[in-house]
Fold these 4 entries.
Entry 1:
Amino acid sequence: MQRRFISIWFCNLATDWMVRRNPALKDIPFVLVAPDHGKMKVTVANLQAQRDGIYKGMALADARTINHTLHYFNDEPGREIKLLTALAKWFIRFTPSIAVDNNDGLLLDVTGCAHLWGGENSYLTDMHNRLQNFGYNHRLAMADTIGAAWAVARFGKGNCIIENGQHAAALLPLPAAALRIETVITERLQKLGLVQIKSFIQMPRTALRRRFGKELLQRLDQAMGTEEETIQSIIPSELFFERLPCMDPIATRKGIEIALERLLDALCNRFVQEEKGMRNAQLKCYRVDGKIETIAIGTNHPSCNSKHLYRLFEDKIATIEPALGIELFVLEAPVVEDLSAVQEKLFAGNAELNDIGLAELLDRIGGKIGVQNIHRYVPDGHYWPERSFKKATDMNEKITTEWKLDRPRPLQLLKHPAAIEVTAPVPDYPPMNFRYKGKLHSIAKADGPERIEQEWWLQDGQHRDYYCVEDEEGHRYWLFRLGHYDVAKSYGWFLHGFFA
C-alpha cells in the first residue's frame, strides 16, 4: 500500500488560541511577550499587529510606539507544544499515528484512512472545516512523503492533495527552504542563485555534499521518497487496539453497545489467532465536541471471551455521556498475556483458581463491587491461628506453604477472639453450654481439645485449648480456653470462629 502523509501548518497557533478563549480579541491587534535580557520582547504577534509592522523579537516598547492601543499578554513557555499535543490527541479520530512538528504543525500518517471518508478530497476537507470552525488559521497538504507534504503545506498554494507519484513534480518550483534545511544552508544556496529546488536537484551529489553537507542530500532524498522517513507518534500506539469511526455521530446507548460488540469481536479474534488474552481494556469514545469519554475493565486472568468482556463493560456504559454524539470508538488492551487453549475435562472435578468459570465470575463481581473488595488469602508459615494466613498480593500468587488440613479450621475467623461465658464439668472436658452476645447455646456435640502453643520466638503468653462444638440448632463454633484449668478460674473462654 502506498504510504500517504498529511502536514498541517498552523500559521498563528498561539494567537488563534487566545482568540478562542476571548473572542473579543478577534479584530484587535495584540501580541504575546516574554522577558529577554531585561526587556519585554514580542514572542508572537497576531495578523492585525503584523499588518502594523510589529514582528517577533521586537521590543514591546517599540511595538507600543507603533500602535498605542496595542494589547499585550504574557507568553507561557512551552504553550505551543501543549496546544499541539492536545490537538494531536483530538486528531486521533482521523488517524492513530500523529506527531508534533516543531512548534507550529502536526504530521499525520494517514495510510489507508481516507477511504473511510469516501476519498482523500472528503478526508482533507473534513479536517480543514473542523480546524476552520475552531478558529485556527492553517494550511494542509497530502503527499506520498513527509517532506513533500511539509513543503507544500508551507510553500504551496492553499490546501492541496499531491496525487500518488506526483510529489517530485510538486517540489521542483518550491524554494530551497521547503526542504526543512537550516537557514545557513538556505542562505548559501541563495547567494549562488540556487533559489528553487529545480535549480540544483540535477547537480552532482558529490558537489552538493561538498558544498552544503549531508543534510541537504538527506532532506532531498526524504522529500523525493528515496530515503524512508517515519513519524514518532505522540500517542502511544497500543499493540492490540481496534478503531471504529462513525459516519454519523452516535448518541444512544444502543449505538454504543453495537460499537462495543464489534470492537470486542474484532480484538478477540486477534487474541484467539495469537493465543493471547487481555488483562485490562479501555474503551475511549471521542465526542464531536472534542471531549473523550473513557470506561475501563480488568480481569483476574487473561481472557479472549468477547461475551464475558462485554458483560464487564455493560455495567459501565451508563456512565458514558455522548452529548452531541460520538464520532470515534477506540478499544485498547494495554496489558496482554499469553493464553493457551485449556483442554476441557470430561468429568469436572473441584474448581481451582485457574478455572475459567470462576475467573469470569470474579471479574463480574469485581466490576459491580470493585476489585479492591475481593480478597484472596493464602497460608502463612505459622501455627498461631491469627498468623496462619495472609492476604495474597494478587489472585495468581503461588502458594509456597500448604494449608494445614489435618485438623478442622473454621470458615470465618474472628479478628479478635470474643470473650464468652462457659459451663464446663471437669478439666479438659468440652463445655456444656456457652453464652455469646446474650444468647445461651447448649452444646450437643463437641470435639477436642487441640492445644496450640504460643510462638515464643514472636511473643509471650498462654497456650490455647481449642474445641469444635455444635449447638442444639446445628450451628458449629470454634471455642478455646486460654491457659490451664484451675480452681481459681484464672483462665478465660473465648469464641474464635464459625464453621459453615
Note: The domain at 241-338 is CATH 3.30.1490.100 (Dna Ligase; domain 1).
Entry 2:
Amino acid sequence: MKVEIINPTECRGWDDMVIATSSYSCFHSSAWAKVLCKSFRYRPLYFTLADRGDLLALLPMMEVRSFPTGRRGVSLTFTDYCEPIVKDRTAFHVLLEEAIAHGKKSGWRYIELRGGQEYLPDAPTSARYLGHKLALTSNEQDLLSCFRGNTRWHINKSAKEGLEIQIDTTLRSVEEFYRLHCMTRKRHGVPPQPFHFFRNIHEYILEKNLGYVVLASYNNTNIAGAVCFHFGNKALYKYSASDVKYRQLDASNLVLWEAIKKYSLSGYSEFCFGRTGCDDEGLRKFKAGWGTTENDIYYYRYDIGAGKFADNDPTKIANYAKYIERLPDPMLRVIGQVLYRHMG
C-alpha cells in the first residue's frame, strides 16, 4: 500500500474513518484541523495508509511556516497529545520515513511528535508531560465514589454557594469565557491566544455539536468556565479559566463536575483532563483527585539536518512571566495575536 497525504478538512467521511479505529482522540478530528488551519494558516499534511476506505495508519501533521521560528512539521500544533493511529511499529516507521522525506524536500528544520512512545522506545525525548483520564459511568454515585474525599468536599461546598451553571454553545458564552481566559493567562504570566482562535472553535466545534462552554455565575457575573470538546464517545476538558477574586467559592470544581455529569449521562466513555507539566504538582494532585488514571506523554523532535532525534525543544523560550503579568490587557492581546502562529 502507498502512503497518501490527506487534507482532512477536504476529505469526505474523514471523521467516520478515524472513529472506526477506536484509538482516536478529539485532536484527530477534521474540526480540530479546521480550527488550526483557519486560525494560524497552517497546512494540514496527514500521512495515511488506507485500504478500501478503511484507515489503517495515520500520522497527522501541520506544516508551520514561520520566519522567526523556522519551517517544520508538528503532530499537532496547539495539541496536548496526538498519538499516531497505527497497528504496529512497522506501519508507524513507514509513515514517519515518508514525513521525513517530505520534510527534506520542503525545507523543514525538524519534525515534532506529541506522542508515539510505544514506537520510539530508544529515542531521546524533547519534553515530558502527564495525562489524566477518567472512565465515565452513567451512575452519578459511582462517579462520586471514585473521587477523593477532598474533591467531593469542594464540589459540595461550591454547590451550596448559590452558583448558577450554564452549558451552551453560543458565541456569547465563548466571549464570556475568553474574558476569564485573558485574566487567567495574565495571572500565569503568558499572553492569551487571539480571540479569532476561540471564534473558530465556536464555528467549527461548538456549532457542530462537538463541544460545550460551561460557565459558573455568581450574582449574575460569570466567575469561572471551561471549554470542552467531544468526538465519537470521548470527551476532553481543553481550557479552563476563572476570576481569582471569587476563588473562595470553588466555582471551577462545580464547572468541572457539571461537565463530567453531562458527558457521563450522555453515554460518553472517557473524559480527558488534558496535559499537565511534570513540575506542576498542585495541578497533578487536583486532577488525580477526580479518580483519573495517569499516563506519560512524551514529545519527540527529529532534527532533519542531523538525521536523528534530539533531546531539546527549539521552541522553548525564556520565562518572562513576572514581566508579562504587569502588562496591560490590550498589549497582552496584541502579543498573543502576533506570537502564537509562530509558536505552534
Note: Residues 4-129+296-343 form a domain with the Aminopeptidase fold (CATH 3.40.630.30).
Entry 3:
Amino acid sequence: METEKRNGIYEVLSPWADADPLPLKGISARPTDLAGKRIGFLRNSKRAARPTLAVLEEKLKARFPSLEFSTFVFLPNDELGASKDIPRYEQWLKSVDAVIFAYGD
C-alpha cells in the first residue's frame, strides 16, 4: 500500500456507503400536453425560489392559458421525506399532474 500511495493511487470510499434506505426510482412519465393540467410548484422558503417560479408561471401561462398552479413550500433545511409535513405533501402530490421544483439559493 505504501508504494501505491507514492504512485498517487488511493482508495476512495463513499461517505454514503450503502446506508440509503430508499431504493432509487426513475422519474415519472412526462405529460405529452400541458393544456388543462395542474402544475405543482415545489419550493423551499428561501428568497429566490418564489420569484423564479413566478416568472416560470407567467411564461407557462402565456403558452398554455388553461394551466392551473399549486404550490407546496417546505423549510429550507428540512428533509421533506422525514418531516411531519409528509402526509400534507403526499395529499398535495395527488392534486397535481406534474411538479416543478425550485430551490432558492
Note: The mean pLDDT is 83.
Entry 4:
Amino acid sequence: MAEFIEVAKANDLKPGALKMVKIGDHQFVLARVGDKYYAADNLCPHMGGNLSAGKLNGNVLTCPRHHSQFDITDGRVLRWTDWSGIQLFMTKLLKSPRPLHMYEVKLEGDKVLLKN
C-alpha cells in the first residue's frame, strides 16, 4: 500500500533545483518549480539517463544523456531526443516516446513528502 514518506525539507531545494532521492531500491527525481514540488522516476524512459543530473528550466526537465525533454508538472514528453533525420526516425521506431511516471508530492510544514 502506498504511503507518504519524507524525502526532503522544503529548503533543501531552491526553485529550479533537482535532487535524486532513494526509497528502498527505487530512485526518484525531485524537482522544485516555484513553490511546488514534483517527483518522477529518476531514469529517463528514453535511454535510462539520470534525470537528477539533468537541467530544469521552468517546468521543462532535460535529460543529460540524449536531451529528451519532459514537462515535470505532468510527465508528458516535449521532445524525445535532440537527434534529427534518420537517427530520430529510428529512435522513435525502436523506442516510442513515453511520458515520465509521476508520483504525488505534498508539503506538510517544512517536510516534502512523496507517495510511492
Note: The first strand starts at residue 4 and ends at 9.
